[in-house]
Design brief:
With about 400 residues, the protein is mainly alpha-helical. The protein has one domain. Helices cover about 70% and strands about 0% of the residues. A two-stranded antiparallel sheet has the order 1-2. Helix 16 crosses helix 19. The longest helix is centred in the C-terminal third of the chain and has 27 residues. The two termini are about 35 Å apart. It comes from Pseudoprevotella muciniphila.
Length: about 400
């Protein structure tokens, strides 16, 4: 399957890491799921960079596909597409947390089809799995009533996320205090649960502090140092304290710039033609979708009615998650890939639609026009910068 130099639906990691490892697990398993489980966890260490959850989920799909004559790639792709409806359900549930019911399905479909979510549903990576886990955790943390079952489910979700990507799971642990503080403690039993959870988190942090520090240093070396030694826009923005980081977040959300750059036939690139994606065209829509989201969210700062809506009608737990989302994006402002950011991107998509639903037709038209003009201006800027 090849078109204009784009080979399969592969990214660099897919063809050089994920597919070969799945093939190896299937080859040595001899059809035994128990042997696969044993091989995956033989050398696993807590808070290591290994990804056992990905293999635990993907290898059985590959074995099932092999039993019916399907190749490894197809089986893995189906395993990711299987998660797609559940992502949609979690986004739909988020709209209900925002008290949006009538148009929740319509808005959910728009996010699933026109945001970056659609693009990454076509790529064999672990980010779509982590997206679903983030949405589950965020939904649980926004629950109005506290009970031990939800808390246990939240902790399990965080642990599974750690087994997919350790740094993503560690950050997701912030959902626990959101859940504990945002829900009302009505009796001694709930207070005891909250106290135990708090002590567990603190104890876990101190017990594995050295490993957590190592994870931070590794990510710093991979992303921040790489940016600091480059000569691109992100490096220039990163040199500006605080404001530069927020501008970098916006610049990342606007990618690709210009939008047609991902549609051009590519035969030779750094990692070969297979590192490109024949499904690149959805990124054109997602770039505009992100710009539109930023413009709508800006209404909180420039429109008193929308600001009052956020202050009075948005629940405290949602506000906490919005703030955590800002921290999440800020900490990864130098990471020039949107796949790691999808979890909180979806939260902001939902918030943008919640704000949009409070606008009258005139205000909607104004903000839509601003989004279009800004998007076109960014494409012109991207074309000029690219040519230079």
């Amino acid at each position: 399957m090849e078109l204009n130099g784009f080979k399969w639906l592969f990214s660099f990691d897919s063809i050089n890491y994920y597919v070969p490892y799945v093939e190896e697990f299937v080859r040595y398993s001899n059809g035994s799921i128990s042997k696969v489980f044993k091989d995956i966890f033989t050398d696993y260490e807590i808070l290591s960079q290994d990804i056992p959850a990905y293999w635990l989920y993907t290898v059985p799909w590959a074995m099932l596909g092999q039993s019916v004559g399907a190749d490894i790639y197809f089986s893995i792709q189906v395993s990711i597409l299987f998660l797609y409806p559940f992502v949609g359900i979690m986004i739909f549930k988020l709209f209900q947390r925002f008290n949006i019911h009538k148009k929740a399905l319509k808005y959910t479909l728009l996010i699933c089809l026109f945001s970056i979510v659609f693009y990454y549903s076509s790529i064999i990576l672990r980010d779509f799995h982590i997206l679903l886990l983030y949405l589950i955790a965020i939904n649980i943390s926004l629950s109005e009533k506290q009970n031990y079952i939800r808390l246990i489910l939240l902790i399990i979700t965080i642990v599974i996320t750690i087994l997919f990507r350790v740094e993503s799971g560690l950050f997701l642990a912030l959902c626990i205090p959101v859940y504990l503080f945002a829900t009302k403690l009505k009796n001694k039993y709930q207070i005891a649960i909250s106290a135990f959870a708090g002590l567990f988190i603190v104890g876990y942090f101190f017990n594995y502090f050295s490993q957590i520090q190592e994870i931070y240093d590794t990510n710093h070396e991979v992303y921040l140092v790489e940016v600091e030694t480059s000569s691109g826009i992100v490096n220039r923005l990163n040199s500006i304290p605080v404001i530069g980081n927020f501008l970098s977040i916006f610049y990342n959300a606007c990618q690709p710039l210009p939008f047609w750059s991902v549609l051009q036939p590519v035969v030779t690139v750094k990692y070969g033609a297979e590192a490109r994606n024949i499904m690149a065209f959805p990124r054109v829509f997602s770039a505009f979708f992100n710009v539109w989201t930023v413009v709508i969210l800006s209404g909180l700062a420039f429109n008193r009615k929308l600001s009052a809506f956020f202050k009075s009608d948005i629940r405290f737990s949602v506000k906490m998650q919005v703030i955590i989302g800002v921290l999440f994006l800020y900490m990864q402002s130098t990471v020039m890939t949107q796949r790691r950011l999808m979890g909180y991107y979806c939260l902001y998509y939902v918030l943008a639609f919640a704000i949009y639903s409070q606008m009258n037709s005139k205000l909607r038209h104004q903000y839509n026009m601003i989004a279009v003009v800004l998007f076109v201006s960014l494409q012109i800027f991207g074309a000029i910068f690219l040519n230079s």
